[in-house]
């Protein structure tokens, strides 16, 4: 069997002109003015495409990138154990990479677009599949050059995408986003090393190592392990993280659907923190109350790993299926945000990816204030909007976030049967009222006390409820006029139609109508 394979390899090697091919590979990998010019152009095209999130422009950079030439030359040098050829190829690569990096940094520094786009972020988390793809591309590239089928090299350049990762490194350096620079540099290094070693393997296959094939293969194995093992470990770890997060997302989605089976729900975003001890889940639901929250947390606690803290951010919508998953900024990839961001990058990203329709928005970088005015079509509760504001403010450290709800009736303050006491449930509602009044710049309200007609309600109780609500709101800088309605016209019939709980309440009305509009 081994003899048959050896003879077949010799026949394959005899079909190529090794001297001519080696000369052609050397010519393609030389450091020349045209090579540097193409590096600069490819870097500029790639950087603009990444900043604009344009796939077609990025593909253009892949097509003109000349880095494949010196990488294949490096593989040939390793196959032939030619140190001079190896160092000349490395010199060409370093010159092209250095120029590409400088061009990318310069363009980003001059550009007003500095927010990481999806195309940029996609090149910051390489995994083992990237190494496998680069290995296959290197084998194809080596074969194309040895068999003089150069047309294939275009497809190989697209598959390995050498220039865009280098442009992302320049972006990360330009805006001091070191995690982005580190991830994209790992991707570029992986592509470079695996293509070169794959080209080495192909050159050895076709007999470029000469009579010292065994010694060459031994050295190639040593070099391969020395290079690929340090790269393979973080890539394998990243692939394992992706697999575990995919399983976790599936568990969360199925648990959400099961726990809230009476309504339509949709997971908008899910993020694990760096310590993998806390899970942020943002989801859209048709309604969500304390009972739903307790039921969902109990179900998730049973389904998820122990010692994993949960932070749930519900977004209340009439139709969660209409939510665009790409616009989930509440938990959005601020985990991938820069350690030292430019003042308004994260705030601008929130506006771009906010999951609800906006009437208007504004960023004041000097005051670190982000304002989001919600469009009436959002149909989202005050409680959900307040929770969104708190979530964003916690994630945008040092910023003040102001979500302005669309005009709507204020929620009534509900009381227990026969009670006028301000307890935790009433305080929660009053805090929402106070928050909404601040966002609408409202200063004056009318509090209309009500009572049920089931024998426990009286006019005095309705008045006392209104007075207690007024006292709480005035402590929070609102002016409140009192009113009481007991009994209302046809109240027993209305209680039968609407439910009696609605009449154990205080209704709040805005008197600054012009302000609310």
TrEMBL record:
Residue stretches spanning the membrane: 35-65, 86-108, 128-146, 153-178, 184-208, 215-236
Species: Dyella koreensis
Record protein name field: TIGR00341 family protein
Taxonomy, superkingdom: Bacteria
Signal peptide bounds: none
Keywords assigned: Membrane, Transmembrane, Transmembrane helix
Cell inner membrane in keyword set: no
Pfam families, alphabetized: DUF389 (PF04087)
InterPro entries according to UniProt: DUF389 (IPR005240), OmpA-like_sf (IPR036737)
